[in-house]
Please model this.
Amino acid sequence: MTLVEPVELAAPDELGRVHFIAVGGAGMGPIAKLYAESGLAVTGCDRAPDSLGALAQAGVGVSLGHDPSHLEGVDTVVYSSAVRESNPELAAARQRGLRVWHRSAGLAALMIGQTGIAVSGTHGKTTTSGMLAHALTQLGADPSYVIGSPLQGGSDHRLGGGGAFVVEADESDGSFLQYPAQIVVVTNIEADHLDNWGTPQAYRAGFAKFANQPAVAEVVVPPELVGLVRPGGPRVHRFTAPEEPYELLAVGQHNQRNAAAAFAVCHDVLGFDADRVRAALATYRGTRRRMELVAEVGGVKVYDDYAHHPTEVAATLAAARSLPHKRLVVCFQPHLFTRTRDFAAEFAQVLSAADLAVVLDVYPAREDPIEGVTGRLVADRVPQGAVYAETLDQAVDELARLARPGDLVITMGAGSVTGIGPRLAAALSGGHG
Model:
Protein backbone atom coordinates (compact mmCIF):
# COMPACT_ATOMS: atom_id res chain seq x y z
CA MET A 1 0.00 0.00 0.00
CA THR A 2 1.51 3.33 -1.09
CA LEU A 3 -0.15 6.63 -0.20
CA VAL A 4 1.30 10.10 -0.66
CA GLU A 5 1.80 11.96 2.61
CA PRO A 6 1.05 15.71 2.50
CA VAL A 7 4.03 18.03 3.04
CA GLU A 8 4.36 21.59 4.25
CA LEU A 9 4.05 23.94 1.31
CA ALA A 10 6.10 26.93 0.26
CA ALA A 11 5.15 29.62 -2.26
CA PRO A 12 6.43 29.00 -5.79
CA ASP A 13 8.80 31.99 -5.64
CA GLU A 14 10.52 30.38 -2.64
CA LEU A 15 11.31 27.12 -4.45
CA GLY A 16 14.34 28.26 -6.44
CA ARG A 17 14.95 26.34 -9.64
CA VAL A 18 12.35 23.59 -10.05
CA HIS A 19 12.97 20.35 -11.95
CA PHE A 20 10.17 17.98 -13.03
CA ILE A 21 11.00 14.28 -13.43
CA ALA A 22 8.89 12.68 -16.21
CA VAL A 23 7.69 16.15 -17.18
CA GLY A 24 5.93 14.85 -20.29
CA GLY A 25 3.30 13.00 -18.28
CA ALA A 26 -0.30 14.20 -18.55
CA GLY A 27 -0.33 15.21 -14.90
CA MET A 28 3.09 16.84 -14.88
CA GLY A 29 3.33 18.91 -18.06
CA PRO A 30 0.51 21.34 -17.22
CA ILE A 31 2.04 22.15 -13.83
CA ALA A 32 5.49 22.71 -15.31
CA LYS A 33 3.99 25.03 -17.93
CA LEU A 34 2.20 27.06 -15.26
CA TYR A 35 5.45 27.43 -13.34
CA ALA A 36 7.17 28.66 -16.48
CA GLU A 37 4.25 30.97 -17.24
CA SER A 38 4.64 32.42 -13.74
CA GLY A 39 8.19 33.41 -14.62
CA LEU A 40 9.95 30.74 -12.57
CA ALA A 41 13.06 28.82 -13.62
CA VAL A 42 11.79 25.39 -14.65
CA THR A 43 13.47 22.34 -16.16
CA GLY A 44 12.22 18.84 -16.83
CA CYS A 45 13.13 15.52 -18.36
CA ASP A 46 11.31 12.60 -19.93
CA ARG A 47 12.10 9.42 -21.84
CA ALA A 48 9.52 10.21 -24.53
CA PRO A 49 10.89 12.81 -26.98
CA ASP A 50 7.51 13.59 -28.55
CA SER A 51 6.29 15.09 -25.28
CA LEU A 52 9.05 17.68 -24.98
CA GLY A 53 8.46 20.06 -27.90
CA ALA A 54 5.40 21.83 -26.49
CA LEU A 55 7.07 22.10 -23.10
CA ALA A 56 10.14 23.76 -24.59
CA GLN A 57 7.91 26.23 -26.41
CA ALA A 58 6.25 27.03 -23.07
CA GLY A 59 9.61 27.97 -21.55
CA VAL A 60 10.51 24.73 -19.80
CA GLY A 61 14.16 23.68 -20.21
CA VAL A 62 13.83 20.06 -21.31
CA SER A 63 16.22 17.10 -21.43
CA LEU A 64 15.74 13.63 -22.91
CA GLY A 65 16.16 10.71 -20.52
CA HIS A 66 16.90 10.57 -16.81
CA ASP A 67 20.34 11.46 -15.47
CA PRO A 68 21.51 12.97 -12.15
CA SER A 69 23.40 15.61 -14.14
CA HIS A 70 20.03 17.24 -14.82
CA LEU A 71 19.96 18.28 -11.15
CA GLU A 72 22.81 20.77 -11.41
CA GLY A 73 21.62 24.07 -9.93
CA VAL A 74 18.25 22.59 -8.97
CA ASP A 75 16.64 23.43 -5.62
CA THR A 76 13.30 21.61 -5.82
CA VAL A 77 12.41 18.34 -7.56
CA VAL A 78 8.84 17.39 -8.47
CA TYR A 79 7.90 13.81 -9.39
CA SER A 80 4.72 11.83 -10.03
CA SER A 81 3.42 8.52 -8.70
CA ALA A 82 4.57 6.91 -11.95
CA VAL A 83 8.22 7.64 -11.05
CA ARG A 84 9.78 4.82 -9.07
CA GLU A 85 12.20 5.33 -6.20
CA SER A 86 14.87 3.63 -8.30
CA ASN A 87 14.77 6.48 -10.82
CA PRO A 88 18.35 7.83 -10.89
CA GLU A 89 17.31 11.48 -10.65
CA LEU A 90 14.87 10.90 -7.80
CA ALA A 91 17.41 8.81 -5.90
CA ALA A 92 20.11 11.46 -6.41
CA ALA A 93 17.76 14.28 -5.35
CA ARG A 94 16.98 12.52 -2.08
CA GLN A 95 20.66 11.74 -1.48
CA ARG A 96 21.60 15.39 -2.01
CA GLY A 97 18.92 16.61 0.40
CA LEU A 98 17.01 18.64 -2.18
CA ARG A 99 13.39 19.57 -1.59
CA VAL A 100 11.52 16.64 -3.17
CA TRP A 101 7.79 17.01 -3.78
CA HIS A 102 5.08 14.84 -5.26
CA ARG A 103 3.31 16.53 -8.18
CA SER A 104 0.36 17.31 -5.93
CA ALA A 105 2.54 19.55 -3.76
CA GLY A 106 3.89 21.26 -6.86
CA LEU A 107 0.34 22.04 -7.94
CA ALA A 108 -0.83 22.89 -4.42
CA ALA A 109 1.88 25.57 -4.12
CA LEU A 110 0.30 27.39 -7.08
CA MET A 111 -3.01 27.48 -5.18
CA ILE A 112 -1.63 29.39 -2.19
CA GLY A 113 -3.60 32.61 -1.77
CA GLN A 114 -6.31 31.47 -4.20
CA THR A 115 -9.83 30.17 -3.63
CA GLY A 116 -9.11 26.51 -4.17
CA ILE A 117 -11.82 24.26 -5.61
CA ALA A 118 -10.79 20.59 -5.48
CA VAL A 119 -12.89 18.01 -7.35
CA SER A 120 -12.54 14.34 -6.48
CA GLY A 121 -14.51 11.10 -6.57
CA THR A 122 -14.16 7.63 -8.04
CA HIS A 123 -15.84 8.68 -11.28
CA GLY A 124 -16.47 11.97 -13.06
CA LYS A 125 -13.54 14.01 -11.72
CA THR A 126 -12.26 15.17 -15.10
CA THR A 127 -15.66 15.98 -16.56
CA THR A 128 -16.89 17.80 -13.45
CA SER A 129 -13.70 19.84 -13.05
CA GLY A 130 -13.76 20.51 -16.80
CA MET A 131 -17.35 21.72 -16.60
CA LEU A 132 -16.40 23.96 -13.68
CA ALA A 133 -13.37 25.41 -15.44
CA HIS A 134 -15.42 26.07 -18.58
CA ALA A 135 -18.43 27.51 -16.76
CA LEU A 136 -16.36 29.85 -14.57
CA THR A 137 -14.52 31.07 -17.66
CA GLN A 138 -17.81 31.72 -19.46
CA LEU A 139 -19.15 33.50 -16.37
CA GLY A 140 -16.23 35.92 -16.44
CA ALA A 141 -14.58 34.60 -13.27
CA ASP A 142 -11.16 34.30 -15.00
CA PRO A 143 -10.24 31.06 -13.15
CA SER A 144 -6.98 29.17 -12.98
CA TYR A 145 -7.26 25.42 -13.43
CA VAL A 146 -5.43 22.14 -13.90
CA ILE A 147 -7.64 19.26 -15.02
CA GLY A 148 -6.93 15.72 -16.14
CA SER A 149 -7.63 16.12 -19.84
CA PRO A 150 -7.63 19.08 -22.25
CA LEU A 151 -10.95 20.79 -22.85
CA GLN A 152 -12.07 20.15 -26.41
CA GLY A 153 -10.98 23.26 -28.27
CA GLY A 154 -8.96 24.37 -25.25
CA SER A 155 -6.35 23.33 -22.73
CA ASP A 156 -5.92 21.27 -19.55
CA HIS A 157 -4.40 24.21 -17.67
CA ARG A 158 -4.78 27.95 -17.32
CA LEU A 159 -3.33 30.70 -15.15
CA GLY A 160 -6.12 33.20 -14.56
CA GLY A 161 -6.37 36.31 -12.47
CA GLY A 162 -9.78 35.91 -10.91
CA GLY A 163 -8.77 34.17 -7.70
CA ALA A 164 -10.54 30.83 -8.22
CA PHE A 165 -8.30 27.79 -8.82
CA VAL A 166 -9.96 24.53 -9.94
CA VAL A 167 -8.00 21.30 -9.59
CA GLU A 168 -8.85 17.70 -10.35
CA ALA A 169 -7.83 16.02 -7.09
CA ASP A 170 -6.60 12.44 -7.55
CA GLU A 171 -7.68 10.08 -4.80
CA SER A 172 -5.90 7.02 -6.18
CA ASP A 173 -2.68 7.65 -4.23
CA GLY A 174 -4.08 9.84 -1.46
CA SER A 175 -2.54 12.99 -2.94
CA PHE A 176 -5.91 14.78 -2.87
CA LEU A 177 -5.17 15.56 0.78
CA GLN A 178 -2.39 17.93 -0.27
CA TYR A 179 -4.51 20.68 -1.82
CA PRO A 180 -5.30 23.85 0.19
CA ALA A 181 -8.91 23.97 -1.01
CA GLN A 182 -11.74 25.96 0.55
CA ILE A 183 -14.36 24.27 -1.66
CA VAL A 184 -14.42 20.50 -2.10
CA VAL A 185 -16.51 18.39 -4.47
CA VAL A 186 -16.94 14.62 -4.07
CA THR A 187 -18.79 13.23 -7.09
CA ASN A 188 -19.24 9.64 -5.82
CA ILE A 189 -17.38 6.87 -4.00
CA GLU A 190 -17.02 3.29 -5.19
CA ALA A 191 -14.24 0.93 -4.15
CA ASP A 192 -11.17 1.37 -6.35
CA HIS A 193 -7.38 1.70 -6.07
CA LEU A 194 -7.30 -0.90 -3.31
CA ASP A 195 -3.68 -1.61 -4.25
CA ASN A 196 -2.94 1.67 -2.45
CA TRP A 197 -5.78 1.95 0.07
CA GLY A 198 -6.06 -1.68 1.15
CA THR A 199 -9.79 -1.85 1.89
CA PRO A 200 -13.00 -0.14 0.72
CA GLN A 201 -13.40 1.22 4.24
CA ALA A 202 -9.98 2.87 4.17
CA TYR A 203 -10.72 4.29 0.73
CA ARG A 204 -13.96 5.88 1.95
CA ALA A 205 -12.25 7.17 5.08
CA GLY A 206 -9.76 8.94 2.81
CA PHE A 207 -12.62 10.88 1.24
CA ALA A 208 -13.97 11.78 4.67
CA LYS A 209 -10.57 13.22 5.56
CA PHE A 210 -10.50 15.07 2.24
CA ALA A 211 -13.90 16.67 2.93
CA ASN A 212 -13.06 17.68 6.50
CA GLN A 213 -9.65 19.29 6.13
CA PRO A 214 -9.22 22.44 8.24
CA ALA A 215 -9.23 24.84 5.27
CA VAL A 216 -12.44 23.45 3.76
CA ALA A 217 -15.48 25.69 4.22
CA GLU A 218 -17.90 24.30 1.62
CA VAL A 219 -18.49 20.69 0.53
CA VAL A 220 -20.55 19.68 -2.50
CA VAL A 221 -21.74 16.05 -2.42
CA PRO A 222 -24.63 13.87 -3.60
CA PRO A 223 -27.23 13.18 -0.89
CA GLU A 224 -25.88 9.70 -0.14
CA LEU A 225 -22.50 11.15 0.87
CA VAL A 226 -23.68 13.88 3.25
CA GLY A 227 -22.49 11.66 6.12
CA LEU A 228 -18.88 12.22 5.04
CA VAL A 229 -18.94 15.68 6.60
CA ARG A 230 -18.52 15.90 10.34
CA PRO A 231 -21.29 17.62 12.36
CA GLY A 232 -20.49 21.28 12.80
CA GLY A 233 -17.93 21.07 10.00
CA PRO A 234 -17.98 22.59 6.51
CA ARG A 235 -21.27 23.77 5.03
CA VAL A 236 -22.82 21.03 2.89
CA HIS A 237 -24.42 21.50 -0.54
CA ARG A 238 -26.26 18.53 -2.05
CA PHE A 239 -26.50 17.82 -5.75
CA THR A 240 -28.36 15.23 -7.76
CA ALA A 241 -29.47 14.70 -11.35
CA PRO A 242 -32.00 17.49 -11.99
CA GLU A 243 -35.71 16.96 -12.62
CA GLU A 244 -35.37 19.37 -15.52
CA PRO A 245 -32.33 18.05 -17.42
CA TYR A 246 -29.53 20.43 -18.27
CA GLU A 247 -29.09 21.21 -21.93
CA LEU A 248 -25.75 19.55 -22.54
CA LEU A 249 -23.69 18.54 -25.52
CA ALA A 250 -22.33 15.69 -23.36
CA VAL A 251 -24.74 12.73 -23.41
CA GLY A 252 -25.63 10.36 -20.59
CA GLN A 253 -27.27 10.48 -17.16
CA HIS A 254 -23.85 10.47 -15.52
CA ASN A 255 -23.08 13.78 -17.20
CA GLN A 256 -26.31 15.24 -15.86
CA ARG A 257 -25.01 14.46 -12.37
CA ASN A 258 -21.61 15.91 -13.20
CA ALA A 259 -23.31 19.08 -14.42
CA ALA A 260 -25.38 19.21 -11.24
CA ALA A 261 -22.19 19.21 -9.16
CA ALA A 262 -20.67 21.99 -11.26
CA PHE A 263 -23.92 23.96 -11.05
CA ALA A 264 -23.94 23.64 -7.25
CA VAL A 265 -20.44 25.12 -7.01
CA CYS A 266 -21.17 28.00 -9.40
CA HIS A 267 -24.65 28.87 -8.13
CA ASP A 268 -25.06 27.58 -4.58
CA VAL A 269 -21.52 28.27 -3.36
CA LEU A 270 -20.21 31.12 -5.52
CA GLY A 271 -23.56 32.83 -6.09
CA PHE A 272 -23.71 33.08 -9.89
CA ASP A 273 -27.15 33.48 -11.47
CA ALA A 274 -28.76 30.10 -12.16
CA ASP A 275 -29.77 30.86 -15.74
CA ARG A 276 -26.28 32.12 -16.58
CA VAL A 277 -24.74 28.97 -15.12
CA ARG A 278 -27.08 26.74 -17.12
CA ALA A 279 -26.23 28.67 -20.27
CA ALA A 280 -22.51 28.28 -19.59
CA LEU A 281 -22.83 24.52 -19.03
CA ALA A 282 -24.79 24.19 -22.27
CA THR A 283 -21.70 25.27 -24.25
CA TYR A 284 -19.34 22.79 -22.58
CA ARG A 285 -17.95 20.58 -25.36
CA GLY A 286 -16.26 17.98 -23.20
CA THR A 287 -12.65 17.01 -22.72
CA ARG A 288 -10.44 14.75 -24.74
CA ARG A 289 -11.09 11.03 -24.33
CA ARG A 290 -14.59 11.46 -22.87
CA MET A 291 -16.89 10.14 -25.63
CA GLU A 292 -14.66 12.01 -28.06
CA LEU A 293 -15.52 11.55 -31.73
CA VAL A 294 -12.29 10.51 -33.44
CA ALA A 295 -13.48 9.87 -36.99
CA GLU A 296 -16.38 8.92 -39.24
CA VAL A 297 -15.31 6.71 -42.13
CA GLY A 298 -17.46 4.65 -44.46
CA GLY A 299 -20.51 5.04 -42.26
CA VAL A 300 -18.61 3.92 -39.13
CA LYS A 301 -18.32 6.40 -36.25
CA VAL A 302 -15.26 5.91 -34.05
CA TYR A 303 -15.24 7.33 -30.51
CA ASP A 304 -12.62 7.21 -27.77
CA ASP A 305 -13.25 7.18 -24.03
CA TYR A 306 -11.17 6.98 -20.86
CA ALA A 307 -13.52 4.67 -18.91
CA HIS A 308 -11.49 2.09 -16.97
CA HIS A 309 -13.72 1.01 -14.06
CA PRO A 310 -16.82 -1.20 -14.51
CA THR A 311 -19.19 1.58 -13.45
CA GLU A 312 -17.58 4.00 -15.92
CA VAL A 313 -17.70 1.46 -18.74
CA ALA A 314 -21.39 0.82 -18.05
CA ALA A 315 -22.20 4.55 -17.99
CA THR A 316 -20.33 5.22 -21.23
CA LEU A 317 -21.97 2.31 -23.05
CA ALA A 318 -25.38 3.45 -21.82
CA ALA A 319 -24.67 6.94 -23.16
CA ALA A 320 -23.50 5.47 -26.46
CA ARG A 321 -26.76 3.55 -26.77
CA SER A 322 -28.59 6.90 -26.89
CA LEU A 323 -26.72 7.87 -30.07
CA PRO A 324 -27.82 6.73 -33.56
CA HIS A 325 -26.23 3.41 -34.52
CA LYS A 326 -26.93 -0.06 -35.87
CA ARG A 327 -24.42 -1.96 -33.74
CA LEU A 328 -22.36 -0.89 -30.74
CA VAL A 329 -18.80 -2.21 -30.91
CA VAL A 330 -16.40 -1.72 -28.00
CA CYS A 331 -12.64 -2.24 -27.88
CA PHE A 332 -11.68 -2.35 -24.21
CA GLN A 333 -8.21 -2.34 -22.68
CA PRO A 334 -8.07 -3.35 -18.99
CA HIS A 335 -5.95 -0.93 -16.93
CA LEU A 336 -3.77 -2.25 -14.08
CA PHE A 337 -3.26 -5.89 -13.18
CA THR A 338 -4.81 -5.47 -9.73
CA ARG A 339 -7.97 -3.86 -11.09
CA THR A 340 -8.28 -6.56 -13.75
CA ARG A 341 -7.84 -9.28 -11.14
CA ASP A 342 -10.40 -7.71 -8.79
CA PHE A 343 -13.06 -6.73 -11.34
CA ALA A 344 -12.69 -9.17 -14.26
CA ALA A 345 -16.22 -10.57 -13.83
CA GLU A 346 -17.72 -7.08 -13.50
CA PHE A 347 -15.93 -5.83 -16.61
CA ALA A 348 -17.17 -8.83 -18.59
CA GLN A 349 -20.74 -8.26 -17.46
CA VAL A 350 -20.87 -4.57 -18.38
CA LEU A 351 -19.24 -5.26 -21.76
CA SER A 352 -22.24 -7.42 -22.57
CA ALA A 353 -24.10 -4.14 -23.23
CA ALA A 354 -22.19 -3.94 -26.53
CA ASP A 355 -23.14 -5.96 -29.58
CA LEU A 356 -19.49 -6.88 -30.19
CA ALA A 357 -16.52 -6.67 -27.84
CA VAL A 358 -12.79 -6.79 -28.48
CA VAL A 359 -10.65 -7.05 -25.34
CA LEU A 360 -6.97 -6.17 -25.26
CA ASP A 361 -4.31 -7.36 -22.87
CA VAL A 362 -3.76 -5.44 -19.63
CA TYR A 363 -2.13 -2.01 -19.75
CA PRO A 364 0.26 -2.19 -16.77
CA ALA A 365 0.82 1.53 -16.08
CA ARG A 366 2.70 1.64 -12.77
CA GLU A 367 2.32 -2.05 -11.90
CA ASP A 368 4.39 -5.18 -12.35
CA PRO A 369 2.65 -8.22 -13.91
CA ILE A 370 0.64 -10.62 -11.77
CA GLU A 371 0.87 -14.26 -12.79
CA GLY A 372 -2.25 -15.44 -14.58
CA VAL A 373 -3.75 -11.96 -14.92
CA THR A 374 -4.26 -11.01 -18.58
CA GLY A 375 -7.04 -9.57 -20.69
CA ARG A 376 -8.31 -13.12 -21.19
CA LEU A 377 -9.74 -13.01 -17.67
CA VAL A 378 -12.21 -10.48 -19.01
CA ALA A 379 -12.64 -11.68 -22.60
CA ASP A 380 -13.43 -15.28 -21.65
CA ARG A 381 -16.24 -14.16 -19.32
CA VAL A 382 -18.15 -11.81 -21.64
CA PRO A 383 -21.58 -13.52 -21.90
CA GLN A 384 -21.97 -13.15 -25.69
CA GLY A 385 -18.29 -13.89 -26.25
CA ALA A 386 -15.48 -11.49 -27.09
CA VAL A 387 -12.47 -11.32 -29.35
CA TYR A 388 -9.18 -11.32 -27.44
CA ALA A 389 -6.42 -9.25 -29.05
CA GLU A 390 -3.05 -9.34 -27.35
CA THR A 391 -1.66 -6.35 -29.24
CA LEU A 392 -2.89 -3.06 -30.66
CA ASP A 393 -2.08 -4.33 -34.17
CA GLN A 394 -4.34 -7.34 -33.69
CA ALA A 395 -7.12 -5.14 -32.31
CA VAL A 396 -6.97 -2.79 -35.31
CA ASP A 397 -7.10 -5.76 -37.70
CA GLU A 398 -10.07 -7.33 -35.89
CA LEU A 399 -12.03 -4.07 -35.69
CA ALA A 400 -11.41 -3.33 -39.38
CA ARG A 401 -12.65 -6.84 -40.22
CA LEU A 402 -15.74 -6.60 -38.00
CA ALA A 403 -16.88 -3.00 -38.64
CA ARG A 404 -19.88 -2.34 -40.87
CA PRO A 405 -21.61 0.85 -42.02
CA GLY A 406 -23.85 2.15 -39.25
CA ASP A 407 -21.62 0.82 -36.46
CA LEU A 408 -20.60 2.97 -33.51
CA VAL A 409 -17.15 1.86 -32.36
CA ILE A 410 -15.74 2.96 -28.99
CA THR A 411 -12.15 2.40 -27.92
CA MET A 412 -12.09 2.44 -24.15
CA GLY A 413 -9.53 2.42 -21.37
CA ALA A 414 -6.89 4.53 -19.61
CA GLY A 415 -3.89 3.24 -21.55
CA SER A 416 -2.54 2.93 -25.08
CA VAL A 417 -5.94 1.92 -26.53
CA THR A 418 -6.44 5.60 -27.39
CA GLY A 419 -4.07 5.08 -30.34
CA ILE A 420 -6.38 2.59 -32.03
CA GLY A 421 -9.06 5.03 -33.23
CA PRO A 422 -6.93 6.95 -35.78
CA ARG A 423 -5.38 3.68 -37.00
CA LEU A 424 -8.78 2.08 -37.42
CA ALA A 425 -10.03 5.13 -39.33
CA ALA A 426 -7.02 4.85 -41.65
CA ALA A 427 -7.65 1.14 -42.19
CA LEU A 428 -11.34 1.71 -42.94
CA SER A 429 -10.49 4.44 -45.44
CA GLY A 430 -8.13 2.12 -47.29
CA GLY A 431 -4.95 3.39 -45.70
CA HIS A 432 -2.59 1.57 -43.40
CA GLY A 433 -3.45 1.01 -39.74
The mean pLDDT is 94. The first strand starts at residue 18 and ends at 21. The chain has three domains: 12-107, 113-282, 292-428.
